[in-house]
Amino acid sequence: MSVVPDRELVDRIAASTGLSPAEAARVVQDVVAFHAETVEAYVRRRHADLKTYGAKNDEIFARLTVELEGRVVAAPALTERQLRRIVYG
Fold first, then answer.
1. 6-39 pLDDT, tens per residue?
2. Are 32 and 10 in contact (CB under 8 A)?
3. SS3 assignment, position 67
4. Residue 25 and residue 15: Cα distance in Å, rounded?
5. Does residue 57 share a domain with residue 31?
6. Which of 27, 23, 31, 33 is nearest to 2 (CA)?
7. Are residues 44 and 26 in the same domain?
8. Residues 85, 42: one domain?
9. pTM of the predicted protein model
């Protein structure tokens, strides 16, 4: 991943876990990459995973609904105009 992780977060992870700063940075990068998955990509991936194990669509969609309620997902890409509208209405 090319994004430099938040230094304060890396320092906190390193201090609380005993990991080196380099190891803590790797953990932060891995977690951020995992949660960067869009809702659409997550739903497609999980649907395919659950289908592989024989789940039917009714149970898959019910399960996805519950999973998405507690999942951190990537924010949508916003244009500058959309950001301005959020701030100024």
1. 899 999 999 999 999 999 999 999 998 888 888 8
2. no
3. helix
4. 12
5. no
6. 33
7. no
8. yes
9. 0.63
Two tokens at 30?
Answer: 């891995």
Give the residue among 66, 15, 19 at the shortest CA–CA distance from 43: 66
- Judged by DSSP in three states, 7 sits in helix
The owner of tokens 């999973």 is: 67
Please name the helix (run of DSSP H) or strand (run of DSSP E) that holds residue 1, with its range, or none. Answer: none
Which residues span the domain enclosing 18? Answer: 1-36
22 lies in the same domain as 60:
no
pLDDT digits (tens, 9 = 90+) for 35-76: 888 888 889 999 999 999 999 999 999 999 989 888 887 667
Structure tokens at 11: 């320092």
